[in-house]
Structure prediction request, 758 residues.
Amino acid sequence: MAKLAVRLQFVEIGVLVALALLVGRAGQVQLLEGRHLAEEARAQRTERVVLAARRGALLDRYGTALALTQETYHVGIAPNELRDPAKDGALIARRLDVSSPAWQQALRKRYAYFAGPFSALEVRPLRSVRGVHLEPVVNRFYPAPELARATIGRVGDDGRGASGLEKTLDSLLAGRSGAAVVLKDHAGREYESPARVIAGPVPGHDVVLTLDAELQEIAQRALDDALRRMDADGGDVVMLDPVTGEVLAIASRQRDGTARPSAFTDTFEPGSVAKIFAAAALLSHGRVRPTERVSGEGGTYRLPGRTVTDDDPQPSFTLADAMRLSSNIAIVKFASRLTPAEQYEGLRDFGFGAPTGIEFPAEAPGRLRPPAEWTRPSAASLAMGYELSVTPIQVAVAYAALANDGVLLQPTLIKEIRSPVGALVYRHRPEPVRRAVSPELAVRLRDLLRGVVERGTGAEAALTNFPVAAKTGTVRRVVNGRYAPGQYTASFAALFPADTPQLVLVVKIDAPHKGSYFAARTAAPVTRSMLEQALAARHVALDRARLSTPAPAPEGTAARLVDDEGGGGGGGVVPYVVPWPYHPDSAGVPHRRAVPDVTGLGLRDAVRALHRRGFRVALKGWGTAEHTWPGAGDSAAVGATVTLFASPGAPAVRTLTRRRPK
Amino acid sequence: MRLKGRHWVAVWLAAFLAVTWLVYARQTAAIRYARQLAEIRARRANLEGHRTALERRIRAADSRAVLVPRAERRLGLHQPADTEIVLLPVPELGAR
Prediction:
């Protein structure tokens, strides 16, 4: 009996020890290692996925898309999951454009991966194929890939801006990625269950650039044609609105067809194009009178350390003659009346030797040495545009100051920034840097430049019906720090029209090998061609109302607006009866008007409201008006095109009250 | 009437079944909606891809590089000189 009791005690103790161990282990697992093990378990059955944010769009000044984001795909193939490897394989290989040997090699793998990226259209037939796994990835898409390529830049493999404006504006465009948790099985395959969103992706802002797609195309084509015709090494074209500082077009091209952003990054000696700034300093300090003449020295003028020559020798020159005929000798003689400080400050005031501040990465500042670093011939060289290095954009900005009544503006490539829901975040306003010259002096300088085109070296750029003011420049080309023998850079800076300029054009041609190398024969005709194309274009950033000569209105021709239900005739199909000659509401001053808010209006009412303000209308979409480019409240030139975006889904929230004209 | 033990078991069983059915129904609906969402996304991606391809073709066809040579070759048009460009003058303010 006693033996049994002892045995029972042993069993009890054993059970108790086992229970104690069990409780201890449970405590260890639950209390000590619980958190860690729970994390491990969660990691095994869940996966955190990144929800990519839509990168903001880049648009031109009229809302034409220049860069968009679209969904593309990486494709994974699990060969053992294919139902019919032969048939499915043929389809997959055809859609992914995979060669037969590569496909056979892929079939031997457990999982073949094709990075692509492949478009939605390419993978559409593969969606229903078992064993094909599509991995969506957002990608950048450029509807016109060659348009302003160097300026817009590109996005890197990591989805971040790698160059150009894509890089500068990356923080605005990128948005913020979201995150979600999905369930997966022991093999790592995702369950077909809804993901738990931790944070939704925030799309990036849309940026409206100042570029005008049509002017940009004109500039690129003109430059390409010129380089091909002249067998030149490269070139740049810059078009700028002098009143706002907005860059309308910027094109760069090298001989090999690449488009490096050389208008921002590559410097050159401007040569005679810079003579107007010496003239500005002379006139602002009162060192020269309009009728005053200097000797032409028979075409050769010897200075200590430098001999100056003229291609077109004359007995004597006024300052206007010096500009018109681009006389080196005359401008050197006139400029010798300036102190080094005055000459230096004159150039500095027009922005030379400092970056313009445009929103482009790695803009070159150029070079303008202070008087302390000058050598003996420096003053003469600077007067002729040597010993000074500038970028094409700097030349355009400096000439824009002459066009803008002497006020130097900071150039910009950004017109507007809009949030993902379309709200205005930023709108460009002209940003004055300083007054370079007085308004009266700016007018005198424009007159000097007008003489260059009417009776001087810029005659090839002259238009019959529209005055142009411009200056030519031909300089020896610097290659690797030395003047390259027989190589020249031809440049041309123009204001159009001459009296109230709306456009500044700078054309630079590097080393033209065929025909003449003078700017008068190379860059000037290119400028003329571009101006003619711009004038004939459907809608570019030129205010045609200001270009035409105002005519008196014939009596009794007031525009009659028939806007009632029956007045349009044809069952209300025709909303207007417009008498000829047509007198739009926009015929008078002011020439710029605010774009009306048409959001929520029916399409017909919205178009009518925009027409009443004197705008042309370009329609995008159908249904109810959503927004316009330029946006509501923005001012636009009368006669300019306003792009109206409409959507069938947007509910009409208001209608225009129909009024009978009095 | 007081519930007896087996009734309680039945009530609890019914409650359990109801809750289980609710969870099952929710999961089923969620998966169905997830499938629909995926299908709609795929359709949207297809349509966007289609639009993108069309946009590229339109921009290419609409470009000067294509239009100008065609207009010159087929219609005998040419790029106008400035003398051929007529801008209609607008009346002065107050003339109306």
In short: The first strand of chain A starts at residue 46 and ends at 51. Residues 2-32 of chain A form the longest helix (31 residues). Chain A touches chain B through 50 residues (CB under 8 Å). The CA atoms of residues 263 and 393 of chain A lie 6 Å apart.
